Amino acid sequence: ALTGHLVFTTVHANNAFDVIGRFMHMGIDPYNLVAALNGVVAQRLIRVNCPACVGDITPDAALLDESGLGGPDATAGFGFRAGAGCGHCRGTGYRGRKAIAEVLLLNDELRDLIIARVPLRQLKDAARRRGFVNLREAGLKLVRDGLTTLQELNRVTFVA
Description:
Layout: H1 16-25, H2 30-36, E1 39-49, E2 54-56, H3 61-66, E3 81-83, E4 94-105, H4 108-115, H5 120-129, H6 135-144, H7 150-156
Helix pairs in contact: 4-5
């Protein structure tokens, strides 16, 4: 990538920021890393509700708390839905999957922070100021829209 070629690679990591840590742990010089790196995409597949048997639900307080959503104010505007299970989904309540992703595009500020080896929290804060959306937030949009369940989101992402 340092010679001008576009290189795609996969790195097993939990999120986009862990990829940077993984490369640093491999002993790659931070300056060379940021010179070659344009961005990082982390993705997960999440099951979607079966359209044949989906219906409105009200999640219990324990599930909301376990999901980091707290009280009813935090879930205002959510259209909680779940599949009951039918012949179309083989009784699972889910049929098909969607990808959720977080995209970290590097700019000069992020590159400088990586070279300076700042704590991950500072890197995340800088990315968030630029509109970075993490996997959990991308999945919560699907839950809010009634396309998947909180249980499924909790299965594929970490509850912060």
